[in-house]
Amino acid sequence: MAVTGDETDEETELAPSHMAAATGDMPTYQIRAPTTALPQGVVMAASPGSLHSPQQLAEEATRKRELRLMKNREAAKECRRRKKEYVKCLESRVAVLEVQNKKLIEELETLKDICSPKTD
DNA sequence: GAGTCGAGTCGTCAGGATCG
DNA sequence: CGATCCTGACGACTCGACTC
């Protein structure tokens, strides 16, 4: 499958935050970062003071919409990246806990053997 | 090879959360 | 309170596996 190579292995603390609100489930893996950086190639629109004709207003509206779509596109990508990372994090935690659980069960069996009265 | 299916990805919209 | 951010949901698209 031709997939975008956006895998990262950075160790980020994924802090569940607000929003157990609506449907409750799905904890969020949201990291509020100061992302004021615009996607490459984005040029800020002309200052609002310089608008005149309806055509210019329409162009401004179009520019705003395109900028919003572009930002949202990037936001969606980032959101999906974080979600993948969160899931990966959960999966590795599951793996660790499974090993831990297995060890505890083994330990329990050993202790049972030691403590159980011999019936010979 | 053509058709179908399931899984994955992407862009967009809607609406709640947050910020200034 | 308007602007912006974040994310679930949806539809469109692609790709590989499978069947005929």
UniProtKB/TrEMBL annotation:
Q: Which UniProt keywords apply?
A: Coiled coil, DNA-binding, Nucleus, Transcription, Transcription regulation
Give the matching PANTHER family. Answer: CAMP-RESPONSIVE ELEMENT MODULATOR, CYCLIC AMP RESPONSE ELEMENT-BINDING PROTEIN B
The record's subcellular location field reads:
Nucleus
Q: Where does this protein have coiled-coil stretches? A: 87-114
Single GO molecular-function term? DNA-binding transcription factor activity, RNA polymerase II-specific
Grouped into one coarse class, the protein's main location is nucleus
Q: Any idea what this protein is called?
A: BZIP domain-containing protein
Give the source's domain of life in one word: Eukaryota
What is one term from the GO cellular component aspect held by the record? ATF4-CREB1 transcription factor complex
Q: Where is this region: Disordered?
A: 1-25
| UniProt domain BZIP: residue ranges | 62-113
Where does this protein have compositionally biased stretches of type Acidic residues?
1-13
